[in-house]
Amino acid sequence: QKARSATKRFEPAVTREGRSIKVFANAADLNTAQTAKEEGAEGIGLLRSEFLFKDLKPSLEEQQKAYKEIFELFDDITVRTLDVGGDKALPYIEIPSEDNPFLGVRGVRLFHTHPELMEEQLHAIFLAAGDKPIKIMFPMISSVEEFTQTKSFAQNVAQKYQLDISHLQFGIMIEVPSVLFLLESLNDVVDFYSIGTNDLTQYLFAIERTHTLLKADALSPALFSAIERILDTATKPVSICGELAANKEAIPKLLNLGMETFSVSPRSIAQTKEEIRDV
Ligand code: PEP
Ligand code: MG
């Protein structure tokens, strides 16, 4: 099996019925993006931008350079704006102490608490993208207004620096359950969706994803119902980028529900393609 996937990793994943499925990578820095390329990824479905913000606040130039190096590797790239807060604290970001950090200031909520930081990140992404049609994704969106306000924020940043961003797409992670009931309205405003099953599972079952004793059932019918609802209701492209996308048992079910784009960790690319070919 291993040898087979090694030779076929650059070939597309086609099911036995002849459906072509895209297999993208979740990248976390330049290194993992390069590994994704070597492993046969067709693009980056999720670029987690947190790596740049770990210890010291990066400058605009540092960010621009780092994004550009990664943007040059693939034609199809989705970059997610900073998703820290909660359990992932940053030394230079002040967030009030929270009883339930996973329900606190995290993801897109930073646009309210730290607008300068988010402005600089968007500015750097716009500069690095240049003419390339990069996709920009907001994490932890929980309402339609949150998306439209954040997109307006981005448009204002572009206007301030006189940058044309009409070729860029703006989409959301589906990881907060309220979004499941807002899809009809979101269809009118977003360009794409990506299902983050790690957080979606955490919030659906009210079990911390990092809990040492408790673990939500990754294959629960409740989660698949949620995914089915998304695929049936969305009129914009949907991909899946949580851990579930590389789960052997989940892959046939996801294909059956109509999923066409999977984004998995670089080391799972070849194996995920093989699983898809066997369906
Ligand atoms: C997710 O929540 O499923 C996801 C892909 O994002 P992260 O694991 O970075 O929160
Ligand atoms: Mg998440």
UniProtKB/TrEMBL annotation:
This is HPr family phosphocarrier protein. Belongs to the PEP-utilizing enzyme family. Keywords: Coiled coil, Kinase, Magnesium, Metal-binding, Transferase. It comes from Sulfurovum xiamenensis. The lineage of its organism: Bacteria, Pseudomonadati, Campylobacterota, Epsilonproteobacteria, Campylobacterales. The keyword Kinase applies. The keyword Magnesium applies.
